Fold SMC-Scp complex subunit ScpB.
Amino acid sequence: MVTPAESLARAVEAVLFAADAPMSVADIRLHVGTEADVAAALTRLGEIYAGRGIELVERGGRWHFQTAADLAHLLRRDREDSRKLSRAGIETLAIIAYHEPVSRAEIEAIRGVQISKGTLDVLMEAGWIRPAGRREVPGRPLTYATTAGFLTHFGLATRRDLPGIDDLRAAGLLDPVDLAFENAVENNVDDA
């Protein structure tokens, strides 16, 4: 005999399999009932699919099934034609990810140079950033933020999973100029 909890887990599983995009708990409830304990069903499904070829993942508060990362290579028939993101694009994406919501002027102030509109367009076409509203200041500049697609592409559950400065230093990803600047700032603080 199927218990109500098992029946709900099956319903949530079916909804997620049929969905064409990741779904929030509220989205799932629209299909299975507003009183349903969807969180418990998701936990149960996560346990069932742990270590399987398909796994249940949550990215930015939205749930979906995906191929296990260690098996993704089996599904690639053709090599994707990937475009390399320019240094300006990488810097702009990093600024948006770490400082969102952020306006074009704020991005330019942090980078120290102007950015072309094309840079933001490329990031929006990739589905990694989106307009996030307008600042309540004169001129009402548009602000930008990252998307759930950004989290999914980079394998992050939330923006809190972005590496910190210590992580970047340990990975050897900081530019020697950045390290020298950071040391100079630390020395000036110590001297003060």
In short: The first strand starts at residue 54 and ends at 59. The mean pLDDT is 85. The radius of gyration is 21 Å.
